[in-house]
Design goal:
The complex is a heterodimer of chains A (710) and B (295).
Chain A (H helix, E strand, L loop, with lengths): L1 E5 L3 H13 L4 E5 L11 E4 L1 H10 L1 H9 L2 E3 L2 E5 L2 E5 L4 E5 H15 L2 E3 L15 E4 L6 H5 L1 H4 L1 E5 L3 E7 L6 E8 L2 E9 L5 E7 L1 H6 L7 H11 L1 H4 L4 E2 L9 E5 L3 E2 L2 E3 L14 H18 L3 H31 L9 H9 L7 H7 L1 H16 L14 E3 L2 E3 L3 E3 L7 E2 L2 E2 L1 H12 L4 E8 L16 H17 L3 E7 L26 E2 L13 E2 L2 H20 L4 E6 L4 H6 L14 H4 L1 H13 L6 E6 L10 H13 L4 E5 L17 H11 L3 E7 L2 H9 L5 E4 L4
Helix pairs in contact in A: 1-4, 1-10, 2-3, 3-4, 10-11, 13-14, 15-16, 17-20, 21-22
Chain B lengths: L1 E5 L9 H12 L5 E4 L10 H11 L4 E8 L5 H14 L4 E6 L4 H7 L6 H17 L14 E5 L3 H10 L2 E3 L5 H17 L7 E8 L6 H11 L6 H7 L5 H13 L4 E6 L4 H13 L2 H4 L8
Helix pairs in contact in B: 1-2, 2-3, 3-5, 6-7, 7-10, 8-9
Classes of the chains: A alpha/beta (710), B alpha/beta (295).
């Protein structure tokens, strides 16, 4: 087969040598734009898994590459004048130049034609081929020529960065965070040879403009960075290699091949540099493509096989890279975190490394995290510090013994609002199972506010007696505390038990519903009535009465439900609040009635006891309530005396659904907690202590509701 | 975990008598259910008709569709047919519904392919009320109708499970893919505030014995030809040895599967006996891995 490879980078060279090795009869030509010996870029990193595949694919180059490796196992984070080190990561790197040299020599040895300094501007200039490999990088001329076929999409990152080198000697992957009068700058640096390190400097656009770097030439940029990082460089020079400030382009391509043309490496996909996998993915592509061609004589099947194998792998990396990129773009959010927590958040940013992983990699670091967390949670300096999950939390005068919340669901919690014995046993059981806090199901503040006829209530003296017994038995049997969740169902009321599905109106005996605006929840639902001022007073008074009764029953914490499309939530979302009066239109006014309820409840609830509010932090519907809205609402609530927020999402309408899965609420909680500066509680399907410890240690939430079936 | 067996209703060339005989023998054990698959443009038996025939010759096993392509059916008619099947079988029907994966089935039925998700949602919203409606008989064994499962891997699919159904039915693949889907189903379930856990059903294909493996692979490649080159990968997942079945069932059991239905890739009654023998030989840990892994 006559194979033409456009682009003599690692992917093109590696594919060429593997294919030639497998079948020497292939006639392979590599066409490279740059002259021989001219190359851009500094070091590239590989993980041990990639190395294993190199070893299988071509032992000769594997040996030479590993001979030139710089290997290190630590990550250093320089932040607020401290250096925090976490070991055990095992990363290897090599100079890009050296890598290319090794691969070129091997190509020569195998008789592959390498044409340097040959710029192709039109595919018609290419020699004849049976198979064309587009290994010509992000700006691939092949991909551009066939844009309608490959359907590429490029998204530019919000931050700016410049790729430099330095002779500063490093013995680890080093993150440096530096603030000056222009803003925050972060450095991603790692050694790749005995004398030189890659040194990438990144900042947000505002800082970049403020520093005048948009107008700065190469020398000026270098001088600026040198001064900014003088303390870190210790006089070592910064090196430029035609370096410019750019926004990272993430490329995704719908298809990677068409007939006898196939995209390889950066020509098909890119992933943010902060997870350091561009060259690695490109070379893995080369292995997969070479193997597919070796195994399948039919080119169509081979190219299909290659794409099917690689695309899912690349997509996983692109998702992780996206997480990492977003982290660095929104890093200002985390500048209030102390160095240990800041480091933990940084290391676990892409979701691929957890609390348990870090403990395995570096026990000392794991212990340091536990000690720091315990110290700030309890004020005690302990040598034998427990994991974050078992540290206390204080909210006003309420002291929780640990960070675990259990909130059991019952098939039939109550009758006439009075909790059944079976449900009471579930709640008490949760305390005995080790919860620091037990949270009730949504409990109605009035008979009209019930979700189902079997809803528990807090609107009658008979309810107080039953709840008081439950609270007492939990206090007597365990150190656990108990929170009551007060709710008014709004337009989601008068439905059947949830054993039969959600939001199905009762067969008979329906009661009238209330909502911010007269919109039914589902097409089958009853039409609710819009609350007028008198109804608002009534609802507010119901919440206040329920609060007083909850105090009578001796509950420890009170939670108001502003989430999941119930009555108070219906005011918050523009999708469900179409009012034109002072309770509708803009967020500030949509918040007015829920806030009125909150204020009245705050006054009625003892000052030494904390209040929590549950909010849906996103509607997942275009034009709906957003995470930014949630941050603003939370800030207002905090100022009014709210102590903690439970972050939920969705269910405002029936057509907005989150991407369900493990810990799916965590990113929302992270943003609310760190932007509004308030403690948060989350569920979102948490089932392991590892998930809980990772969330807590990184400062993504303060209390975790674990999924349980008791 | 319970293990059911599929009827060969989706294997081309299967004789009607074999399906009846298969159902009769499976009812004698050790299987807990009989499954059927649904394709319109293919040499296969219509699933609900097949289960009606199976109902007549069985008394113990549950009768499960994994799945029926819901949007191809009129809602009221589907409610009537399934209520009849439920009543005829003494409440043994488990109805799995999904949108299916082939546009040609929709084109042939004259149903718009693009609005299939919306149609399934509307169907799920109305089915239980139709079953309850006294003017449309017969009365189902449970007032709420047969156990209802929903398939599909989209976020919307899992929201449908939590909103309308009793559980989730998985389309196939290795246990780790099922584990991820099961997490999503359970996450959606608890987010919806539904007590307990969703019922989790799944399926796999088997061909046991040296005489069956090649034919089995051939069938898999043909059945999944619409997925293009992916058919090869799916065919490679065919369970062809007792060891493979042990590993597969244990993987599913550990991921929390409630009922796994194993479908034959070869329409030969000997396959049923071979599968029964393999299941008899499995240690109890393969099907009941204990509480340790349970979420």
């Amino acid at each position: 087969m006559k194979i033409v490879i456009l682009g003599g980078g690692p992917a093109g060279l590696y594919f060429a040598l593997l294919t030639k090795k497998a079948n020497p009869r292939h006639d392979i030509t590599i066409i490279e734009r740059n002259p021989a010996g001219v190359t851009y870029g500094w070091g590239v990193v590989f993980s041990d898994r990639t190395l294993a595949s190199f070893q299988r694919a071509d032992y000769k180059t594997y040996e030479q590459i590993t001979n030139h490796f710089v290997i290190w196992d630590a990550i250093d984070v320089l932040y607020r004048g401290e250096t925090i080190r976490c070991g055990g990561h095992v990363i290897a790197s090599i100079a890009r130049k050296q890598l290319l040299y090794i691969l070129q020599r091997r190509c020569d040895e195998l008789g592959i034609a390498l044409k340097f300094g040959c710029e192709i501007n039109d595919l018609a200039e290419l020699p004849e081929y049976d198979l064309l490999i587009a290994a010509d990088g992000l700006n691939s001329i092949v991909r551009k020529t066939y844009t309608p076929i490959f359907k590429p999409g490029i998204e530019l990152g919000k931050a700016r960065y410049i790729w430099l080198g330095t002779h500063k000697v490093l013995d680890s992957f080093t993150f440096i965070f530096r603030e000056n009068e222009h803003g925050l700058f972060q450095v991603h640096a790692y050694p790749f040879s005995g004398t030189t390190s890659t040194f990438i400097i990144e900042c947000d656009e505002a800082s970049w403009l403020k520093a005048g770097l948009d107008k700065a030439g190469e020398a000026e940029s270098l001088a600026y960075c040198k001064q900014l990082l003088a303390d870190d460089l210790d006089g070592a020079p910064l090196l430029s290699n035609n370096s410019k400030w750019i926004s990272f382009p993430t490329l995704k391509t719908r298809t990677w091949h068409s007939q006898n043309i196939v995209l390889l490496g950066d020509a098909a996909h890119t992933a943010h540099f902060s997870i350091g996998s561009g060259t690695r993915l490109a070379m893995e592509d080369a292995i997969a493509l070479a193997t597919a061609i070796e195994q399948h004589p039919d080119l169509e099947i081979a190219l299909n096989e290659y794409e099917l194998e690689r695309k899912p792998v690349v997509e996983v990396f692109q998702r992780a890279a996206q997480e990492s990129q977003t982290y660095f773009e929104t890093i200002k959010r985390y500048l209030d975190l102390e160095p240990v927590q800041f480091t933990f958040q940084l290391l676990t940013r892409s979701g691929r490394i957890s609390y348990d992983d870090l403990r395995l990699r570096d026990t000392h670091f794991g212990d340091a995290v536990n000690r720091w967390f315990t110290q700030q949670a309890s004020g005690h300096s302990l040598i034998a510090a427990p994991p974050p999950m078992f540290t206390p939390l204080k909210l006003r005068e309420l002291a929780l013994v640990n960070r675990l919340v259990l909130s059991p669901l019952s098939t039939c919690p109550a009758q006439d609002g009075i909790p059944h014995d079976a449900y009471a046993a579930q709640l008490t059981g949760s305390a005995l199972y080790g919860a620091g806090l037990v949270l009730t199901e949504p409990t109605s503040v009035s008979v009209q506010g019930r979700v189902t006829p079997a809803c528990a209530g807090m609107y009658d003296e008979t309810h107080v007696a039953a709840w008081a017994r439950i609270v007492e038995s939990i206090h007597a049997a365990s150190p656990a505390k108990i929170a009551i969740q007060l709710n008014h169902a709004g337009r989601r009321g008068s439905t059947r038990p949830r054993t039969e599905g959600l939001d199905r109106p009762l067969k008979q005996g329906n009661w009238p519903l209330l909502s911010a605006s007269p919109l039914p929840y589902t097409p089958q639902s009853q039409l609710p009535q819009e609350l007028d001022r008198a109804a608002m007073d009534q609802v507010r008074n119901d919440f206040v009465r329920a609060t007083q009764l909850a105090q009578e029953a001796n509950f420890d914490l009170l939670q108001l439900n502003f989430a999941h499309g119930y009555l108070l939530a219906s005011f918050l979302s523009p999708l469900t609040n179409l009012r034109s009066d002072e309770y509708g239109r803009v967020l500030e006014q949509r918040l007015r009635f829920p806030l009125e309820v909150f204020d009245a409840v705050r006054v009625a609830w003892p000052a030494d006891k904390p209040i929590s509010v549950a909010i849906s932090a996103s509607d997942y519907v275009k034009g709906g309530f957003t995470i930014e809205d949630a941050v603003s609402v939370t800030q207002v609530l905090k100022a009014r005396g709210c102590d903690i927020v439970e972050v939920r999402a969705g269910q405002t309408t029936i057509d907005g659904e989150p991407a369900y899965g493990r810990a799916f609420l965590t990113p929302l909680s992270d943003q609310v907690r760190n932007e509004a500066g308030i403690p948060t509680m989350i569920g979102g399907y948490l089932t392991t202590s590892n998930e809980v410890n990772t969330i807590l240690a990184a400062g993504r939430a303060d209390l975790c509701i674990m999924n349980c079936c008791i | 975990m319970r293990v059911g067996v599929g009827l060969p209703n989706g294997v081309p060339g299967t004789r009607g008598q074999l399906i009846i005989e298969w159902a009769r023998r499976a009812d004698a054990g050790p299987f807990t259910s009989l499954g059927v698959v649904d394709r319109l443009i293919y040499d296969s038996y219509e699933p609900l008709t097949t289960l009606a025939a199976a109902a007549a010759v069985t008394s113990r096993v549950r009768l499960a569709t994994t799945i029926v392509i819901g949007p191809l059916h009129n809602d009221t008619l589907l409610a009537k047919v399934t209520a009849s099947l439920d009543a005829l079988s003494g409440g043994r029907l488990v109805l799995g519904l999904a949108v299916g994966a082939r546009k040609e089935d929709y084109d042939a039925a004259g149903i718009d392919y693009r609005s299939r998700g919306k149609r399934l949602t509307e169907q799920l919203a109305s089915l239980r009320s139709l079953w309850e409606d006294a003017s449309i008989g017969p009365k189902t064994a449970r007032p709420a109708g047969p156990e209802l499962l929903v398939g599909g891997l989209s976020d919307q699919g899992f929201a449908r499970v939590a909103r309308y159904a009793d559980g989730y039915v998985h389309g196939g693949g290795p246990p780790r893919t099922f584990a991820r889907a099961a997490d999503k189903a359970r996450a959606a379930w608890s987010d919806a505030g539904r007590p307990g856990k969703p019922q989790l059903w799944a399926q796999g294909y088997f061909a046991l014995g040296a005489d069956a493996v090649e034919a089995g692979h051939g069938y898999m490649k043909d059945y999944y030809a619409f997925t293009g080159p992916f058919a090869e990968k799916i065919a490679a997942g065919l369970l062809t040895s007792p060891q493979a079945i042990a590993q597969f069932t244990r993987g599913y059991a550990e991921a929390g599967c409630d009922e796994l239905v194993l479908f034959p890739a070869v329409p030969d009654i000997a396959q049923l006996d071979r599968l029964a023998a393999v299941l008899d030989g499995l240690g109890r840990y393969s099907l009941d891995p204990g509480r340790l892994q349970e979420a």
